[in-house]
Amino acid sequence: xxxxxxxxxxxxxxxxxxxxxxxxxxxxxxxxxxxxxxxxxxxxxxxxxxxxxxxxxxxxxxxxxxxxxxxxxxxxxxxxxxxxxxxxxxxxxxxxxxxxxxxxxxxxxxxxxxxxxxxxxxxxxxxxxxxxxxxxxxxxxxxxxxxxxxxxxxxxxxxxxxxxxxxxxxxxxxxxxxxxxxxxxxxxxxxxxxxxxxxxxxxxxxxxxxxxxxxxxxxxxxxxxxxxx
Length: 229
Description:
It is built from 10 helices and 10 strands. The protein is an alpha/beta fold. The strands form 3 sheets. Strands 7-6-3-8-9-10 form a 6-stranded parallel β-sheet.
């Protein structure tokens, strides 16, 4: 049986349940205030290759990893480039920002410290690759708080599927129904809840148009992590 930990603060997010065996975090838009990086990269990339993004772009790629987004540019927008070369260019454009600029959202570092002090197993489930994710976590001094890193591209999946959440639970040795998940996008909330996890939605300005929907889907909602302190 999983060792359970008390989370009295999670009731302030509106959750009915307050004990879990492990926690799974997303990074972009959840722990990290990083979505502005991708808005800038999309603009620069499209200018460089003469691409025009459709109005549905944000919805089309939500939850996709690097490889999925690269395939979107190639298959949907006609980019003449290999998936690998496209991913390499995304990496090159993003790395310095993740290494030097991207900060955690308000209260996130303090909350990670609280969970670490409790001994709660923590996993990361991210659409980023380990180079960018590791750079951001090291820049913010929190990489060592995580026991496991589960990445969409490594698992050949995306946040529209539950595979990454099941893999994250397994990497912690925790049953899915005993996991607490923090996410900021609708598909990921759906995927986590589909396998019995408790999902808390974190507000992100980049996807603010989805806030009413995500509030209705999630088990709880926070504006930022200061609400849990």
